[in-house]
Design brief:
5-stranded mixed sheet, two-stranded antiparallel sheet, 5 helices
Length: about 150
Amino acid sequence: MNRLTAGETAPEFALPNEKGETVKLSDFSGKKVLVYFYPKAMTPGCTVQAQNLRDNKSELDKLNVVVLGISPDAVKRLPKFIDKEQLNFSLLSDEDHAVAEAFGVWGLKKFMGKEYDGIHRISFLINEQGVIEHVFDKFKTKDHHQVVLDYLNQ
């Protein structure tokens, strides 16, 4: 896993959202984009993380930040998560985990004594020019939104 760091240009990507529409990073040129990678829709940690981003979206909007959640979930799973949790931002499907690999967040994980490949819960704040401004990799899911907001408001 060779994770991207602050100062590097974010890789361009094009992924389907919850409606099956293609979303590209370049669609948001001139805005900051919080790209947050999460393991699986409708799991406890991912739900809490998404709910807190939902509840703080107006503050993120004021700071000119677009939120994009990326997981290896199939497109058909994403609308269920959005509807159930009333999410107010797009979720993108990276089923082949190519984008996760490009950002360096796909790799070996351990859970309950088992090893497997999966997405590491890491977020990237990409600036208006498409450069990674900050990497958020040390947070609890329930505090993710606050760590992001604290950074943006400093």
